[in-house]
Design a protein that fits this description.
Largest sheet: none
Distance between the termini: 21 Å
Keywords: Membrane, Transmembrane, Transmembrane helix
Helix content: 55-70%
Strand content: under 5%
Protein name: DUF5009 domain-containing protein
Number of helices: 14
Radius of gyration: 21 Å
Oligomer: single chain
Number of strands: 0
């Protein structure tokens, strides 16, 4: 029976969202202006095409932890007497909201009504349905289903013979680009692909399995070792496929990328789990990460809409303006503005948490 929240899950989700919130303030771009040759800062941007940066792990981490959260919320409802049949309408409602929110965000980004299916929430709408459908089945069957999805996606790219779209590892000339043109009549300027939900559904499925392991497996040391083993296996498999000729490309979610990114995220999750595997965490982390994790969807929508549309600009007037008055260079004034906005996001999350105000679907 699930009676308590699992801090490792909430803190990990909060950690992912905190990094995304910092991006929404423009912090990484402003720091790169000051330190253009920093290897560390380059890790906070996506690889141009082939390769894997730290920032390429954020979306897989988002999808994986969403799978864990889906597992816990589902089994909490089952413990309370619900059935899979009675939970299905709730999951469908949630997926519809995620789809509308994801497509709506792109309308806000563009400043006009558009149909673009590249947002992580849009992708999550589909992976949530797939993962929930598989939850009732055995672990081997869920793993087999996730691998089948990867193979289907890989085969569609590799065996496509559509003229002009038969280059599986070339931007805008692959099967995913053809599907985007068919669905939306346009291609992403960043070479993102809408059908990435198919291979990255594996991340959500594996996230649900991680939640299941945390819930049902003991002792904690066994869970930790299992996470380490699976993480290393994913990294080796992903980079092995990369060396074998299936390049790691995040923008099309290639087979090698999906496995390698899942491996790195599982290793990171292992560290979070280890930290909270006893009553007292080994390393104390800021409580605001937990607050952000507890209200993940509301905070995400806040920093994807109000922050870039209004809060960044308004805060810049006062913070950068004051920095100019005291002779602080403009570039550093921009950094200070981003930090202040990030602090405001954190303050909102902690205030909502203290008042027990949560946005749940």
């Amino acid at each position: 029976m699930i009676t308590n929240r699992f801090p490792a899950v909430d803190y990990f989700r909060g950690f992912i969202l905190f990094l995304l919130a910092a991006e929404s303030t423009g912090l990484y771009e402003h720091l790169e202006t000051l330190f253009p040759h920093s290897f560390i800062l380059k890790q906070f941007f996506h690889a141009d095409w082939q390769g894997l940066h730290f920032w390429d792990l954020i979306q897989p981490g988002f999808m994986l932890i969403a799978g864990s959260a889906l597992y816990f919320s589902t089994y909490k409802r089952l413990d309370q007497g619900a059935t899979y049949a009675t939970i299905w309408p709730h999951v469908i409602k949630r997926s519809i909201f995620l789809f509308l929110a994801g497509t709506g965000l792109h309308c806000i980004y563009r400043g006009e009504m558009v149909l673009e299916l590249w947002n992580v929430l849009t992708q999550l709408a589909f992976t949530t349905l797939i993962t929930f459908f598989l939850l009732r089945f055995s672990i081997p069957l869920q793993i087999a289903a996730s691998l089948l999805l990867l193979l289907i996606s890989h085969s569609l790219y590799v065996f496509s013979s559509i003229p002009g779209y038969d280059q599986p590892y070339t931007p805008d000339q692959n099967f995913g680009s053809y599907i985007d043109l068919f669905l939306m009549g346009k291609l992403s300027r960043g070479h993102w692909i809408a059908m990435n939900f198919l291979p990255t559904a594996a991340h959500t499925i594996w996230g649900a399995l991680i939640g299941r392991m945390i819930h049902r497996t003991s002792p904690p040391q066994l869970v930790f070792r299992t996470f380490l083993g699976l993480g290393v296996l994913g990294v080796i498999a992903g980079y092995g496929l990369d060396m074998a000729g299936i390049p790691i490309i995040k923008r099309t979610a290639t087979l090698s990328f999906t496995l390698a990114s899942a491996g790195w995220i599982t290793l990171l999750m292992a560290l979070f789990y280890k930290n909270w595997s006893s009553e007292k965490p080994v390393l104390a982390m800021p409580k605001y990460l937990n607050s952000i994790g507890n209200n993940s969807l509301l905070i995400y929508l806040f920093f994807e809409t109000i922050v870039p549309q209004w809060l960044n600009k308004t805060t810049h007037i006062f913070v950068a303006g004051f920095a100019h008055l005291v002779s602080i260079p403009e570039a550093w004034g921009d950094v200070l503005t981003s930090i202040v906005v990030l602090m405001l996001i954190v303050k909102l999350a902690t205030w909502l948490d203290s008042k027990k105000i949560y946005f749940k679907l």
